[in-house]
Amino acid sequence: MPRDLISHPDKVFFAERGETKGDLAEHYVRVAEPLMRAMGGRPVLLQRFPDGASGPSFFQKRVPKNIPDWLQTTVVSTPNGTTSQALIAADIDHVLWAVNLGCLGFHVWPYLAADPEHADELRIDLDPSPGVDFTHIRRAAHEAAGLLTELGLAGHPKTTGNRGLHIYLRLQPRWDAYQVRAAAVALARELERRRPDLMTAAWWKEERGERVFIDFNQNARDRTFASAYSVRRTQIATVSTPLSWDELAGADPDDYTMATVPDLVAGRKDPWAGIDSNPQSIEPLLEMVKADEERGLGDMPYPPNYPKMPGEPKRVQPSRDTDLKDGRK
């Protein structure tokens, strides 16, 4: 490991097991090949923990001043248009430079820095509501996989490092983030139609019940997602880990940690090894968007930090919507 990039490698970052900043750097070195396959060439948002995982943290888009000459960066924006000079995950040395700043994990933009106008990932976020456990998440994932198969598409699952699950579709770089989000909305709605007992596309928490929420807004423009192989802020240093569909059948998120994942990577083929070899079309999902429009279904609400978007409905909880209370639409 290029130790010259890591200062104070013995500083404890995870108190429960005594794992250090050096151990964190070693994790990323050992998973470097699949890690760079997942996030190489993309802008990354740094989640920094200067005092370790149990201390305060903050997200940092903008790289600090006086960065090394070799560090690659790119301009990214926030929903309100503010721009920042962000780190590109160009190689493992860029990752280690960020680890040295106390970065545990990396939150990645859904496009390559070389082509910011085209989102080349559609991300299905299966988010547990209260009362939902990972058994329900696995069931929802297989329902999503079945629908994708019907549409001629392939999804690649990974644990989030917490209690949910992500499914990635690598896309042809032909669509912008607004089109990809529209495709995700249509997918979420269809999954809810098929299994309303298990899954919901309801944006408002009061409407979800004890169901798996399909968070379509994780595909909103400039939304970042925890990268594959990112270490998360948990006592046991869980890792967001790509799995095969067979592995998912018996998976427990707590089994995938900084202590176990590098050996797992070394001992089996990367289940995402072919993710870039066959980039996919979202045309089948865009046909579903049209079908929903013919049903009279418009857009869904955006997250609260986004400006009001064209065609977006009111961002008002149904229980607080005075028009609904008065019987008006």
What does this structure look like?
By secondary structure, the chain is an alpha+beta fold. It is built from 9 helices and 13 strands. It has helices spanning 21-30, 32-39, 92-100, 134-150, 177-194, 245-248, 261-267, 283-294, 322-325, and strands at 12-14, 19-20, 43-48, 58-60, 73-77, 83-88, 103-108, 121-128, 156-159, 165-170, 199-200, 212-214, 225-226. The strands form 3 sheets. Strands 3, 4, 5, 6, 7 and 13 form a 6-stranded antiparallel beta sheet that branches. A 5-stranded mixed beta sheet has the order 9-10-8-12-11. A two-stranded antiparallel ribbon has the order 1-2. Strand 9 and strand 10 (165-170) form a beta hairpin. Helix 1 packs antiparallel against helix 3 and helix 5 crosses helix 8.
Beta strands, count: 13
Task: Output the helix-strand order.
Answer: EEHHEEEEHEEHEEHEEEHHHH
Number of helices: 9
| Helix/strand class | alpha+beta
Please compute the radius of gyration using only Cα atoms. Answer: 20 Å
User: Low-confidence parts lasting 5 or more residues at pLDDT below 50?
Assistant: none
The oligomeric state is single chain
**Arithmetic mean of pLDDT:** 94
Helix content: 25-40%
- Which word captures the global form? globular
Biggest sheet: strands, sense, closure? Answer: 6 strands, antiparallel
Strand content: 15-25%
* Beginning-to-end CA distance, first to last residue: 61 Å
List keywords for this structure.
five-stranded mixed beta sheet; six-stranded antiparallel beta sheet; 329 residues; alpha+beta; globular
What's this model, at a glance?
With 329 residues, the chain is an alpha+beta fold.
